[in-house]
Amino acid sequence: MSGRVVLIVASVLVLAASARAQHGTAPTRMDCARMPCAEVLPGAVRFEREPPSTASRGPDGPDGATDVGYAVGYAADGSRVGWVALSNELVDVPAYSGKPVVVLFGLDESATITGARVVHHAEPILLAGIPEAQLTGFVAWYVGHRADESISVGQATRRGGAVTVTREVDGELQPQVFAAVDVISGATVTALAANRTILDAARRVGREVGILEAEAALRGRFVADGEPWSWARMEAEGVFGRLTVTQEDMGLPPRAEPFVDLWFTIADAPAIGRGLLATGDYDHLVAQLEPGQHLLVVLGRGTSSFKGSAFVRGGIFDRVRVQQGLEEVQFRDTDYQNLGRVAAPDAPRFREGAVFLTRGGALDPGRPFDLVFLGSHHDSRGAFTREFHSFPATHQLPASVYFVENPPEERTIWEEAWHRRFVDVIALGLWLFLVMAVFALRRWTFTSAKVLAGLHLTSMAVSFVFVGVYLGAQPSVTQMLTLVEVVARGGDPTLFLVEPLLFVSWIFIAIVSIVWGRGVFCGWVCPYGAMSELIRKVADLLKIRRFELPDRIHGKLRYLRYVVLFALLASFLVSATVGERAAEIEPFKSTFLVPFWKREWFFVAWWVVLAVASFFVFRPFCRYLCPMGAGLALFGSFRLSGPKRRNFCSSCSICQKGCEPRAIADDGTIDPRECLSCMECEQTFNDRDRCPPLVGLDRLMAKRERGARDEERLAKLRRDEERVPWRPGR
Ligand code: SF4
Ligand code: SF4
Question: Is this prediction's pTM over 0.85?
Answer without folding.
Answer: no
